[in-house]
Amino acid sequence: MLADRDAYIDAFSAFVAASPSSYHAAAAVAETLAGAGFDARDEGEAWPQFAAGDCGFVVRDGAVIAWRAGDGVDGASPVRVLGAHTDSPGFVLKPRPDFTADGWAQAGVEVYGGPLINSWLDRDLGFAGRIVTRDGVERLVRTPAVARIPQLAIHLDREANSGLTLDRQRHVQPVLAAGAGDVSVLELLAQGAGPSTAGDPAVADPALTNEGPGISSGDIAGADVRLYDTQYPQRIGARGDLLASPRLDNLSSTFAGLVALLESEPARGTISVLAAFDHEELGSATRSGASGPFLSDVLDRLRAGLGASGEDSARANARSWCLSADAGHSVHPNYPEKHDPRVRPLAGGGPMLKINANQRYASDAHGAALWRRVCETAGVASQEFVSNNTVPCGSTIGPLTATRLGIRTVDVGVPLLSMHSARELAHVDDLHGLARVTGSFFAAE
């Protein structure tokens, strides 16, 4: 796929459709890797010795880390990490979700991260995530379109087009049915539950396989479930070169890292790593987030399998690199004043090097030099992103990874319009270009 843009975009669209939640994304990555011969590792079991050519992966909740060792690896071998995240802003199901209001059956949801709330109005929504049954078994779950957050008609709010204000508690609770009746969110989840993930981190999405476990709502002891937009990604635009899709932030980077890991040989004496974390949109401070110990735990175990000493590990980190890949902003033609007046990244201009003087991004001069080199090797155009001084930028996993591990880190990403919308927009060349550059990064000596 690194050599075929259209095949890459088709596969990426299918990946997004199979990944309505972080748990589905981690499972989809795991399923692809297992099919390519990567070994699944269990964090609760002993790991085997490590050697050249070894490749494997481990899933922790909604995060996944995978690796591929080049020839000549030893305890002091550096890593080349593509860091990304699997979550996106949106709405998460609350406990005791069922309620009725004025004859409508509804579900209680809580805002997750910083979504463009108005973009979720009047869309066909489903529930997706994971449930845990009373016997402790975890299952992926996905329903078809069963919910909608209805907007108030213009006749009832004549000022809506001049200033829409949405109360996060009162105005974003989805409707499920007219009349209460026997509508139950947990029953919908039970009907949409797939096979147990126990012992198999590469379980296929039940919505694609139509496999059901035959559980009831009473079997559900816990749920981590979100709303998702059921519309499939679509190539649009006068030239067909734009992709409208949910969760481009940040499945665009996760999939780029996955394909690059599969299709690029690691440089001699290095280990290529894909680290796709969860909960970036909340600040990453969880066991499966970039501020947690997941990556350091995995690297410690891999290096232990190579017989590394503390001195070896310190040497390895000093020579390692992380590409923190997360979506960024293209200049918006309707709001040009929101962007820097001279640094003007555009969709189709290539993936971006993201720079911030206050280290909201981890890029520095060394990172810029590395990025230029791997882009030139891949034959991919690149551009820079910097914020307007009056519009502070967000942050990424980049500074967190650099702080936790001391690894040199550079922040990059694909330019988007409508970031944090239920449906974002990117140029297909940029999406494919990020994968090609990541392949060059993994292979760089």
UniProtKB/TrEMBL annotation:
Belongs to the peptidase M18 family. It is an enzyme of class 3 (hydrolase). This is M18 family aminopeptidase. Keywords: Aminopeptidase, Hydrolase, Metal-binding, Metalloprotease, Protease, Zinc. It comes from the Bacteria. Its cofactor is Zn(2+). GO terms for molecular function: aminopeptidase activity; metallopeptidase activity; zinc ion binding. InterPro entries: Peptidase_M18, Peptidase_M18_dom2. The keyword Glycoprotein does not apply. Pfam families: Peptidase_M18. One of its GO terms (cellular component) is cytoplasm. GO terms for biological process: proteolysis. Its EC number is 3.4.11.-. The keyword Transmembrane helix does not apply.
